[in-house]
Predict the structure.
Amino acid sequence: MARREYDVIVIGAGFGGPVAAKKCADAGLRTLMLERSENPGEKVISGLTIPVYGFLFGPSFIRDGNPPIERPVDGIRNYVIYDVKSGDIEIVELRIPRPVSPIIAFGYNAYCKPFCTWEAQQAVRAGAELLTCTTVVDVIKNDGRIEGVVTEKGEEIGAKIVINCEGSQGLLAIKAGVREKYPPQAISLADTYDYECPREVIDEVFGHSLRFCWAFDEQKLAPPLGHGNGLMSWPYKNSIHWMQDQCLAFNDGQVPNLRRLFDEYHENITGQLPWWRDEIAPRVRLRARMWEGFGIYVGLDDRLRNMPNYTHGMILAGDVAGLESTGLCDGVPTAWFSAEIAADTAIEAISANDTSAAFLERYERRIRAHRIIQWAITCRGRWNLRKAQESHDRKDLKSKINYQFGPGILTHAGTPLVNGILSAVRKNPLVLKKWVRMFLRYYNCWENDCADQETIEDGRKKRRSLALDLLILDAMVILFSPVNWILACLLEPLSGVVNPLVRFLLPLIELALRAGIKMEPLFKPVTRWTIDYVKGADPEILVSGSSERSRGRPRKSRASLS
Amino acid sequence: MARTSDRYPGVEWVGDTGVFIHIDDKKCTGCGNCIKVCLGRCFEVERKLARIRSLAECMECASCWYVCGEGAISFRWPPGGAGYRSDWG
């Protein structure tokens, strides 16, 4: 039987794979996506807030689409637990005040399976082929060049280039000789629980904020903070996601007994932490427990970070390339960014008829030049929490939590994020239109349970059209776009001053955020009106661009037409 | 037919995974690291050597493979469509 041949094979239909596959298919390349599970995302386990920068600067089809989200997030409420029995607990909060939030969100919570499935559907609609229930076990190598893959059934499938998005274990990347196995010190095991909970309870207790817990080791509440970890809970629409995670090995190589620790700590914290014990525990039902390993500390090790992410005929993107965020413990935005860069590189390589490592080296250069990726993978904020454990100093603990999960995050995230905004506006001043629509549409679709085109068609009945409002918005953006473009060009080179400036102004910023939260009751009518205004809109009108309105109809790829 | 576990609700195991984790007795020192990190209780130590107890509750996290300092554990993915799956990850 003749070997099937493609231009591009994408391994993995998690968060990154479909992004690469869609971009390649959009460029007219014959693209095959291989996924080992039966449905995309059903083997992906994570407590998941996708930070907003992933949506703002990531793939346009996600920003302009209606992915299934579980709840917009307005911030993080950290519980710094010094002594749970005496109630010695402090709160460090980072939150966008009302009425700006929850429409303007800090991020979006999601379940992996529906989100990855939605992404894969977009790639298929663009013309990519998706083959599920297929495990790739090896690569086809010819004279040192990767020319395709071998499935577990022994089928050989040829490709000019392979984009590998297989996930952090990297079994194929290791087999292909691209990178080494990561050491256990770089891996965190995440023990995840999913609780069903009525929406009104979540609205009342959590609102739109994540809740993180941190404690000194002797409290036995959150996994040993001495090793840089904590406990996180995410409010979803009708459920609460709960996760504790811990490195597989300490710096000295010692392996903690996680089987015992996780059970003990879960029992302690759910039974002792007052707000969980009194407000949540009586009203929830455990629906699922699962776990997964994440390579979240890979970026902090110079040697691991500098391992190549490409070889002759293959590019690694997302977790397999060690691109998980060490600070926010999240890998989705970096998977999206790197998958887009990988697809761009693959398209150029195929166009130049050169898929050699020398040509693909530009992928590595682009990853290293990407400010948000580099900030995400090298941020030491969470890792440094272990130093507070060593010093056992409560001020030190609180200040380190504030630095990574409180307002202090702006002192290191400011420059890359402002740079990202200015760079996007410089490239296209009209992107502002799309960002505003995205926030409105995501909130609207979340409230109205209409996450895709088909349900939007139902959801739009008897809804208020925002056509005139959006026309005014568009006119304003177009009117100011020359000014915005000039400002972006002038300010982008100066974005490096944002971090030092925020460090200097941090006390004032913290004061303003606190004042904003204190004054929320005054803005209650405005908040109510804003939410009703967005919730009551016809979601169809919020879709960016006329081309988006045809998303419901599958179309043939250019490759298949040629 | 999908299998479930009382200990780990919300997860199903489907298909025939076969044995996708192997232990090389010549390299194993019986240190027990694989047991410590395996939440699915897949391992046990017998006569100072680790052995697979059951892969029925394995979620393919590969933690055993990461922590085996001697390289005695080899890990590969189960065949396509087999193994654990969940709607709640």
